[in-house]
């Protein structure tokens, strides 16, 4: 078997969210009732008018290959969306459609990284970035950004992380898992650093842009520093905003040379995204947008509820997130305590496993996002599940035995 597999696979771990899902499925199959807070997708159906567009596409013959960068109709709809919502101007030749935003990010690293090239990834990060860099021969440069900096990269930390080998900075706003949303002023400071380092490209993953709450507003870095457009890849997609994760449509917008390289990789690997999904995505981006506002309103009410319930449990704490649909819960207050079974909770993975086994509540450890001592809990689930899950957590926490005083 060793001979079968390529060396580069040794640099890659399985996705922690997939591993968490497998744990939930196994426990449910064994008859346990589990409240699942690991979900990384909206819990409601794709809006009916988008499904109708997909069905119509199938019936009207959108069942064949398309061009490898996506249909002109979809790229035109994406250009119009970028202009309308983000005030960014792109020609359709500067846009590539992929099988999800993940595909675009992966191909961008595959197209640009040589062995040892560095990619700056602030913590906490979406689990896939470091592995996608590593599998393509790059070196992830992880920059810790804790609660003191509201889980955001500062200009000084960025400056300190840049070397002659740096190829990309990956920014994710709103952020999965912390919910942090960069302000225009923060982005201006980061862009000012990038302007001084012409070898560094910016990848800006804006897949959660529509899920922002309270006073927070989504700003695309190029809105504050248009001069970076010549070395920026804007990544986005329809998965989260339109509850279309299974349709697999994401896109990238960037300079023609990079887009050509992405198209080359697509043409020799996946050929093109599904034609019927592309047609449905045209309707998603160009049709009525109330569904997006409804999704945001739903998440906004759940966000307030889950944050209040978590903060009422002794030993747990979270900030109400500014964006996305996750709370990032500080569990440091539980570390060192002992479970009724006599084990000591030494880290966030232990806490995650205790909650799963004792409370029947599934979460994901912060270590998987580069930020130990936290758990990620998704609120892409009903208020009833949120209330009952938090009650189970409260009960499990109340059964912990305080750390023995040191001798
Ligand atoms: N970027 C972030 C930050 C995500 O959380 C996800 C999905 O969880 C993606 C990108 C990928 O989205 P998709 O490939 O479904 O477009």
Structural write-up:
The chain has 407 residues and is of the alpha/beta class. The chain folds into two domains: 7-45 and 291-398, Aspartate Aminotransferase, domain 1, CATH 3.90.1150.10; 49-287, Aspartate Aminotransferase, domain 2 (3-Layer(aba) Sandwich). 39% of the residues lie in helices and 13% in strands. The protein is built from 13 helices and twelve strands. It has helices at 16-29, 48-59, 72-86, 101-112, 128-135, 155-161, 184-195, 221-224, 256-267, 275-286, 290-311, 348-359, 383-398; strands at 35-36, 95-98, 118-122, 139-143, 166-172, 201-205, 232-237, 250-253, 326-330, 361-362, 364-365, 374-378. The strands form three sheets. A seven-stranded mixed sheet has the order 2-8-7-6-5-3-4, with helices on both faces. It starts with 15 loop residues before the first helix and ends in a 9-residue tail after the last helix. The model has no long low-confidence stretch (mean pLDDT 96). The structure holds pyridoxal-5'-phosphate.
Bound molecules: pyridoxal-5'-phosphate
User: How would you describe the shape?
Assistant: globular
Strand content: 5-15%
Summed up, the helix count is 13
From the alpha-carbon coordinates, what is the Rg to the nearest angstrom? Answer: 22 Å
Strand order of the largest sheet: 2-8-7-6-5-3-4
The CATH homology group name of the largest domain: Type I PLP-dependent aspartate aminotransferase-like (Major domain)
Q: Which class of the largest domain in CATH terms?
A: Alpha Beta
What CATH architecture label of the largest domain applies? 3-Layer(aba) Sandwich
Proportion of residues in helical segments? 25-40%
- The overall strand count is 12
Biggest sheet statistics = 7 strands, mixed
Question: What is the number of domains?
Answer: 2
CATH topology-level name of the largest domain: Aspartate Aminotransferase, domain 2
Distance between the termini: 51 Å
What are the secondary-structure elements, in order, as H or E?
HEHHEHEHEHEHEHEEHHHEHEEEH
Uncertain residue segments: none
């Amino acid at each position: 078997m060793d001979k079968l597999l390529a060396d580069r696979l040794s640099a890659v771990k399985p996705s922690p969210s997939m591993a968490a899902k497998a744990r939930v499925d196994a426990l449910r199959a064994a008859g346990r009732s589990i409240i699942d807070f690991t979900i990384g997708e909206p819990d409601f159906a794709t809006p009916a008018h988008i499904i109708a567009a997909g069905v119509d596409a199938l019936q009207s013959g959108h069942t064949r290959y398309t061009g490898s960068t996506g249909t002109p109709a979809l790229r035109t709809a994406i250009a119009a969306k970028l202009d309308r919502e983000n005030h960014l101007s792109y020609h359709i030749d500067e846009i590539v459609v992929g099988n999800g935003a993940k595909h675009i990010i992966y191909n961008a690293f595959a197209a640009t990284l040589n062995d040892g090239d560095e990619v700056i990834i602030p913590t906490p990060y979406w689990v896939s970035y470091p592995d996608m860099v590593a599998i393509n021969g790059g070196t992830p440069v992880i920059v810790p950004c804790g609660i003191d900096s509201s889980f955001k990269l500062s200009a000084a930390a960025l400056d300190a992380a840049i070397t002659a080998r740096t190829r990309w900075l990956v920014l994710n706003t709103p952020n999965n898992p912390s919910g942090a949303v960069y302000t225009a002023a923060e982005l201006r400071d980061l862009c000012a650093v990038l302007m001084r380092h012409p070898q560094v490209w910016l990848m800006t993953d804006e897949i959660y842009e529509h899920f922002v709450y309270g006073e927070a507003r989504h700003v695309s870095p190029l809105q504050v520093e248009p001069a970076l457009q010549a070395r920026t890849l804007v990544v986005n997609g329809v998965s989260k905003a339109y509850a279309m994760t299974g349709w697999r449509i994401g896109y990238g917008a960037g300079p023609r040379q990079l887009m050509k390289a992405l198209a080359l990789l697509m043409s020799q690997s996946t050929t093109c995204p599904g034609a019927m999904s592309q047609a449905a995505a045209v309707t998603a981006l160009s049709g009525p947008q109330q569904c997006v506002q409804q999704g945001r309103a739903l998440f906004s009410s759940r966000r307030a509820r889950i944050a209040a319930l978590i903060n009422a449990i002794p030993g747990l704490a979270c900030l109400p997130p500014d964006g996305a649909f996750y709370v990032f819960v500080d569990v440091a207050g539980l570390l060192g305590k002992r479970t009724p079974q006599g084990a000591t909770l030494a880290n966030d993975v232990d806490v995650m496993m205790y909650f799963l086994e004792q409370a029947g509540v599934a979460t994901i450890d912060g270590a998987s996002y580069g930020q130990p001592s936290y758990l990620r809990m998704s609120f892409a689930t009903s208020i009833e599940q949120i209330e009952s899950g938090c009650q189970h957590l409260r009960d499990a926490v109340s059964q912990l035995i305080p750390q023995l005083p040191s001798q």
